[in-house]
Design goal:
It contains 16 helices and no strands. The protein has helices spanning 5-33, 48-77, 79-103, 117-147, 155-185, 187-212, 225-229, 244-250, 255-278, 284-291, 299-304, 320-341, 348-376, 382-410, 416-441, 458-485. By secondary structure, it is mainly α.
Length: 490
């Protein structure tokens, strides 16, 4: 109740967008590697390696696109219009992905350029629309959250934690709903459900945004000579009142701005190491859940709940992370508040370092899981994956919502969406690298560090643990210097 009503509009819109995105994320690789034997069992029949590469490039391009979308919003359309455009494109993209199954030859052949070019083109058009739509949507809705609060408003970080819960409520339900439907009835129906979710987001934003988002995300103010020249930090005395929005969107950048921009760029580099590891959830960990984890529902549970499937759907593991976010985000917010009141809250760079170390621990947990999977013929206990996702979730909470808030505070107002796009560019690079890491090493080949092939994926998980751990300690060493360059904003 202490936050503007517009936060709940943005919360709901983002919830539906993430429902759509994570539904598609949960089933994309499984759809690509599934072998189609007849018209009722769709799948592309690709190798795991090829599927991981496509997943990496898709997720990478999804987070490169905000550079373009953010620039268009800052220069021409404003954030509000771009959110609607992006949401519409993503809904259309999901329906194109679903249409792949209705234009394919239908004889059970694997989908390649040689066997079914029409279906392949339809599929790629769907991915392209998703990428472009995300480019418009993602940076702009995050910037609008920041616009709800005046500079220095201490509620901003809490607002982004609340907003982040919206992201993860959508992410929690989408694998359960769309993933289950996709695995049981056909992947095309999973994509359809994702598209319908995105339409719900558009309806929510347009219906309630008219009332609660007035003045937010408007097209940019054009240059004003008065606003440019009357800026004290530029060495000019303020001699006339200037509209605050116009002033911030037209004033020149000064030393403090450049220092803060440097901090954004440095932390963006650090975040790459985090997401390269974390994003194994959609590729190598997804397949590990399907092929190497004991997913049998206990007979006693099936007896009590006879409607349950015999096997636990692999996509359901994707819901552990967002469920953890929803549970632990409020708790961590209280922890930060408790520490802040006593003057000992960690700085933003220190929180980043902690996030990197925690995601490293999440893959250390997977090493005994990989060894057990190899020893039991693919029947590793489910709790290894659950523990992995929990540690990764705690790391994500230390880094991702904090990073979103940090960009809106440090970036110059007239470049707010552009720098949010740069922030997502770091994620883009990491997703591409994550896809190639899974492709080359995630099958158990190509990496021999300590355990050897007889221990399955143990060496791959060790590699995924070491990289963020090293970067995390580097971030911890640089934290005091970076905090100083933020000039009092944290």
């Amino acid at each position: 109740m202490r936050h503007p009503a517009g936060l709940w509009v943005l919360f709901t819109t983002e919830m539906w967008e993430r429902f759509a995105f994570y539904a598609m994320r949960a089933i994309l690789v499984l759809y690509l590697v599934e072998v189609s034997t007849n018209e009722q069992t769709p799948g592309f029949g690709w190798s795991e390696s090829d599927a991981y590469k496509l997943y990496g490039w898709y997720t990478g391009l999804v987070y490169i696109a905000p550079l373009l979308g953010g620039w268009i919003a800052d220069r021409f359309l404003g954030q509000r219009r771009c959110v609607v455009i992006g949401a519409a494109l993503m809904a259309l993209g999901e329906f194109c992905l679903a249409a792949t199954e209705y234009v394919r030859i239908g004889n059970g052949a694997d989908i390649t350029a040689a066997t079914d070019l029409t279906a392949l083109i339809t599929f790629y058009i769907g991915l392209a629309l998703m990428i472009l739509g995300n480019g418009f949507f993602k940076p702009c809705i995050s910037v609008m959250v920041g616009q709800l609060y005046a500079p220095g408003d201490r509620r901003r970080d809490a607002a982004f934690s609340i907003f982040y819960m919206g992201i993860n409520i959508g992410a929690f339900f989408s694998p359960l709903v769309a993933g289950t439907v996709a695995e049981k009835f056909g992947f095309q129906y999973g994509f359809m459900i994702a598209g319908l979710g995105m339409l719900c987001g558009i309806v929510s934003f347009t219906m309630f945004g008219q009332r609660h988002l007035k003045g937010l995300g408007a097209p940019p103010v054009r240059n004003s000579k008065e606003a440019v020249t009357n800026y004290p930090e530029a060495g000019v005395s303020l001699t006339a009142p200037v509209n605050t929005q116009q002033h911030e969107q037209t004033r020149p950048l000064v030393r403090k701005d450049w220092d803060r921009i440097f901090v954004i760029l440095v932390l963006s580099v650090f975040v790459i190491a985090f997401w390269v590891t974390f994003e194994q959830a959609g590729s190598s960990l997804n397949v590990f859940a399907k092929d190497n984890t004991n997913r049998e529902i206990p007979a006693a549970v099936v007896k009590v709940m006879p409607g349950l499937p015999a096997l636990f759907p692999a996509t359901w593991y994707q819901s552990v992370n967002p469920f953890g976010i929803v549970i632990f985000a409020p708790i961590l917010t209280l922890v930060w508040t408790f520490l802040a009141r006593r003057g000992i809250e960690p700085s933003t760079p220190t929180k980043f370092a902690l996030g990197l170390i925690l995601v490293s621990v999440s893959f250390l947990v997977m090493i005994p899981g990989a060894i057990e999977a190899k020893a039991t013929g693919g029947k590793a206990a489910a709790y290894w994956l659950v523990l992995c996702y929990l540690f990764a979730t705690w790391g994500e909470l230390c880094l991702s919502p904090v990073g979103l808030s940090m960009v809106t505070k440090l970036a110059p107002v007239r470049y707010a969406s552009l720098f949010m796009g740069i922030w997502f560019l770091a994620s883009s690079v990491s997703y591409i690298l994550a896809g190639y890491a899974a492709s080359y090493f995630g099958t158990g080949e190509g990496v021999q560090l300590l355990f050897g092939k007889e221990k399955g994926l143990a060496d791959f998980f060790l590699l995924m643990a070491v990289c963020p751990m090293v970067i995390g300690f580097i971030a911890l060493a640089l934290a005091p210097k970076l905090k100083k360059m933020m000039h009092g904003i944290d």
